[in-house]
Design goal:
CATH superfamily of chain A: Histidine kinase-like ATPase, C-terminal domain
Oligomer: heterodimer
Order of helices and strands of chain A: EHHEEHHEEH
Radius of gyration of chain B: 12 Å
Structural class of chain B: alpha/beta
CATH architecture of chain B: 2-Layer Sandwich
Largest sheet of chain B: 5 strands, mixed
Number of strands of chain A: 5
Distance between the termini of chain B: 24 Å
CATH architecture of chain A: 2-Layer Sandwich
CATH superfamily of chain B: STAS domain
Largest sheet of chain A: 5 strands, antiparallel
Structural class of chain A: alpha+beta
CATH topology of chain B: Transcription Regulator spoIIAA
Shape of chain A: globular
Amino acid sequence: MNEVMDYIEMKIPAKPDYVGVIRLTLSGIASRIGYTYEEIEDMKIAVSEACTNAVQHAYSMEEGGEVIIGFGIYPDKLEIMVADSGKSFNFIQTKNELGPYTESSTVEQLSEGGLGLFLIETLMDEVRVLEHSGVTVFMVKYLSGERENHDQTIANRETN
Amino acid sequence: MNLKIEKQQSEKGILVQVAGEIDAFTAPKLREELLPLAEGSNKSIIVNLKDVSYLDSTGLGVFVGLFKQLKKSGGELQLTDLSDRLKRLFEITGLSHIMNISVN
């Protein structure tokens, strides 16, 4: 299976002031990988929504704290995790804990997260949400054309 | 990262030019500037979004709030000059069916 090629992690204060900084970073990483303008703009919205949720959660709890954003860079996809626990996480371990993405959990999250999570679900290829001491949103965007290859691989595996 | 908001009275109503990025940081400023304009009855507000380079659910929330307030008092909201990106955002959220938006 794919191992993370490169991993970049950022930690920002849980304040709306810095969500734009994450968009700039994401934009830089995604254009280096080779995503199209449209794909990058979609990811900017999804990641901002996740950061905004994390920041607002921290605000409503009056806890302050930090938001951690991890970028897992693969040849064919970009994985992005946004965690509001304020603690640095083990990317692979946390990802494995998230479990499979199901239709029923999506609807549940929709009603709770509102438009923000709806946009994340719509604009990204895969989304998983883990609720523990905080909330971690894990999302994947495949490079153009890779999505079909990915589905094809799964389809081949299922028929075999 | 800054948001510029310019308002002027025109024959058709209050014309608002918004420029910059609308996100969790700048949306409160936008809300503060726009909501007082809807006070009173039969107000017509036209928001030009030509120079908005970024918009997400926080910005959509501001426009939905303004739209609801204007509806209640018999007013009207028009969002004009939407880029393809912004138009798409209103379409996928279903807001394009409810609100009055135009591309130019």
